[in-house]
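[step 3/7] fold_predict: job queued, chain A
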Amino acid sequence: MDIQRKDAGKKRLIRRIVIGVVVVAAVAGTSVVVGRLKPAAPSVDLSVVWRDTVKRGPMTREVRGLGTLVPIDTMLIPATTEGRVQRILIYPGTPVRADSVVMVLTSQELETDLLNAEYAVKSAEADYANLKVTLEKLNLDMQSTVAQVDADFNTAKLQGDRDAALAKEGLFSEVDAKISAVRAVQLGSRLQLEQKRISINTSAEDAQLAAAKVKVDQLRGQFNLKKSQVDQLNVRAGFDGVLQQLPTPVEVGQKVAAGTPLGKVAQASKLKAELKIAETQVKDVVIGQHAVIDTRNGLIEGRVSRIDPSILNGTVTVDVALIMGKDAPPPGVLRPDLSVDGTIELERLNDVVFVGRPVFGQQDSTVQLFKMEADGKYANKVKVALGKSSVNTIEIKDGLKVGDQVILSDMSAYDSYDRIKLN
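[step 4/7] structure written:
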């Protein structure tokens, strides 16, 4: 016969509660332990990262920029007057002389003005000649009058002297003698007036002829100007060199205003390099620094000759004067607008700790890099203070020592990790 146990259910409940408490405590403890564990180091393929070894020794600071070769001596060919392009005789890339006709313009208005100016000059010259003849005739008439008065004066003087002598001897009336003397004096005064009139008239003639001559010269100057403008419708190079392409070339039939660029002539044998240097790197560039220009067909040495004071699109234009040595590319290789790559040497640091330049490593900044462990299986994040920078290298001020290997690639995807595994 079975005997019923009155406390069995109570014991079973207590046992279940104890088991539940133990399970909950175990789960909580496990969660705390797991939460305190560091995340597993992610794996990185070593073959796809860029790494370098920290070194000590001389480091050359350089800056690099892309650019083009441009002529040193250029001359723009402008339209001196308004006209229409009739013919284009020489196209860009052709060698030209100073008197080579590049293109021909036409202007009916200018040709009409030239014809009118020519007729105006001829009319003024005819007026000048007519005035000159008229004044000469007037001068001759006045000289004839003076000659007549002079003759009358001499006759009256002789007659007066005769009558005075006869009156003194009582052979002639004294009144008549005085009348003869007065007449002689009157003719003498008139002779002086006529002579003075000739003198004044000579000055007046000179003034009138000078005024007419000025008008002739003025009209002739206008004619020569119009003639020169018509001659300049034959657009000449004006400079020995090679005709260059304009950004917006003119076409046959196009009407151009005075001052419009029609062409550009450059001396292809005298070139310089124009490099575009980032505004953040140009502060250490000075005139006279050594530079090397890579033309893709050889290297040319040079010197910085000019630094543009303005900034355009985040870059500064730096001119490099080329030094054409014996190893320079042949003249046929170098041509205006040729794309080049230039490197400017800023300074030489004799004894510094340096490494290859990281992707985000800027001069005088602090970055975090992954330093490889000795066995090369793991890399740990370290803080590195950077100093002076160059194109491919940068100075290490603190955080690394000679012989350390660091990863220089972009590791921003692993910013949340302090350690990575290298495969």
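[step 5/7] annotate
The chain has three domains: 46-69+268-422, 74-106+233-266, 109-231.
The longest helix spans residues 108-168.
exit 0
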